[in-house]
Structure formats: C-alpha cells, structure tokens
Amino acid sequence: MPHDPGDEGSRPGLPALEETPLGPIVEALCASQNGLARRHHEGSCRQVLPSRDAVVAVVEDLRTVLFPGYFGVSDLTDETMRFAVGSTLERVRRSLGEQIKRGLCFACGHHPSLCPDCEPQAVSLTERFLSTLPEVRRLLATDVIAAYEGDPAAQSPDETVFCYPGVLAITNHRIAHELYRLGVPLIARIISEAAHSATGIDIHPGATIGERFFIDHGTGVVIGETSVIGANVRLYQGVTLGAKTFPKDAQGNPIKGILRHPIVADDVVVYAGATILGRVTIGAGSIIGGNVWLTRSVPPGSRISQAQSRDDLYDEGGGI
Question: What CATH number does the domain containing 173 carry?
Fold first, then answer.
C-alpha cells in the first residue's frame, strides 16, 4: 500500500511530528497583550471601532458614483444613472455616517449607544462630506485628463480610469482629504491606507493637491501630511515628498502639527526616485531629475540634476 504523507503529518522517511499543545500559547497570548487587545470588561461599555471593511465598501460605492458606468452597473442611461447614483449615495449616507460616528466615539472614549454628542455630529459631517462630491468629481475629471495626456501609452481616458494605479490612488485621496478637512482623520486614514495597500502609493490624507495631478507608474511614491502640491504636477515612481528630522518636546516626543513637508508649485515634474525633504518650495515649472536628493528650495523654472544636488546632501543634516 503506498505511503500517504498525510497519515503522519510528515514526508516519507521522516519521523511523525507531534502537535504542539495550544493551551499554553493561548494563555500566554491572552495574559499579556501589551495594549494590543481591546477587551469588553463586564459591567462596562466598550468602544466600538470603525470597520475597515465597511469603510472600504463605502469607497467602492463612491467610486461608482464618481465614475458612473465605469464601476458597478455599466449599462446606464440618463434615467437609470440618476437612480443608480441616488440609491448608492443613500447607502453611502447610512454606512459612512455609522463609521464616522464610531470614529468620533472612539476618539471621545464612549460607546456609540451612550454618546449624546457623536450621533448628531456624525450626521452633520456626513451631509457636509456628501456636499463636496461634485467638486471632488470635477477635480478627478482633470486628473484623468492629465493621466491620459501625460502618458503616451494610454489609448484613451477610459483606460486610465480602469487601469492606472495613480488614478485609483488620487481618487481615494480626494475622498479621504475631504474627510480629513472635516475632522474625521481615522476614517480618512483607513481610506488612504487602502489605496496604499492596493497601489504602493502612500498619500497622507492631509496633503493638499491641486487639479490635473498625475502619478505615472506610481509604486513607492510617498507624499507627507503637510505637503502642498499645485496644479498640473506630475510625479514618477519612487518619488518622496517627505520630512527631515523634526523637533521633539521636553519629554522627547515628536512635536505634532508642524509644517514639515515640501511645497510643489504649479507645472512641476519630479522624475523617478527623487527625494525632496523638509518645508522647501519647488518653484513653478521646475523639473527635478531622477534620484535627486533635495533639501533646499529652488526658484521657478529650475532644472535640477543629481550633479547639481550632490553638494547639498549633508548640508545642515539634510541627508540624514
């Protein structure tokens, strides 16, 4: 009779493996969580965290609203489009409102059922967010055209909507940025990190980005929280708009909220692998070459290559 490796949990010729008792491992994991578990203690009301899956589902619903006919139902007419958009927005209103409420209650430390303030605040924030969607869609239309015009390989604007990671990432960002501005940072961060996971493009929801924005290829792009990007800016893969080392308070904790990321003016192109650090300004119409390391401002119309930036690498700790 042929030997079945599954009979012994091992390959032929090797001794059978004994199962490790799980009891001691379970006890060790549950006994000391180091703050990494959220427990419901009897007699107390635990906080209810936002659901990442629910937030991602909301974003996918919004994608069908912002690009009707591209995602979700495809055979839309003028009449069915109004119905599809309206019914989807009603679902978004309910689901997003619940997730915003959970995020607010998480911040204030109360259970949603016992928090008198978070429910009306969540309703107001949800309505205010929904009112921003026409402007979000206008901006995204300019981003799609920028992607089509900026990439000779693109056969149509439709292709950029369906296929381009940069368009997916900027769609998530424009949604997340509105929520961030409204004071819902946790939900916004979930949305931005979902795009990061899918595309390798990491845009903090706090970053301010103008119209006609295009990220070509995209993998490895990082855009920090306080970055300000003008109109008609193009970035290639591996670009970092980051911060230098930043000050700490008396207890040694990083000081939050300072302006620490670059300002990129209109009509700038930043080629692959470039790193721009600190609150510096890249003047309008500049071109930053591939793999440049830049920690100083440059005037409008600059052309910066590796050779030009090399001398600045360790100026006042800029390369550290």
Answer: 1.10.3130.10
- Claim to verify: residue 225 and residue 192 sit in the same structural domain: no
Tokens for 192, please give them: 């931005």
How far CA 268 is from CA of 34, 206, 233, 264, 299, in Å, comes to: 46, 20, 5, 7, 11
Expressed as residue numbers, the domain containing 277 is: 207-320
230 within some domain: yes
Is 167 inside any structural domain? yes
Q: What is the mean pLDDT of the chain?
A: 87
pLDDT tens digit string along 263-314?
999 999 999 999 999 999 999 999 999 999 999 999 999 999 987 765 554 4
Eight-state DSSP code of residue 44: S
What was the pLDDT predicted at 46? 56
What is the tens place of the pLDDT at every residue in 89-106? 999 999 999 999 998 988
Secondary structure letter of residue 238 according to DSSP: T
The answer, yes or no, to whether residue 141 has pLDDT greater than 50, is yes
- Could you give the CA distance from residue 34 to residue 143 in angstroms, rounded to a whole number? 44
- Are residues 238 and 148 part of one domain? no
Partners of 208 in beta bridges = 228
Residues 62, 176 share a domain: yes
Single pTM value for the model: 0.84
In whole angstroms, give the CA distance from residue 281 to residue 130.
33
> Would you state the structure tokens that stand for residue 21, as one six-digit string?
């008792």
For residue 269, the domain's CATH number is 2.160.10.10
What element of type H or E holds 118?
Answer: helix 118-131
- Give me the sign of the Cα torsion angle 180, 184, 186, 191: negative
Torsion of CA 56, 59, 60, 62, to 10 degrees: 160
d(CA 275, CA 261): 11
pLDDT value of position 18: 78
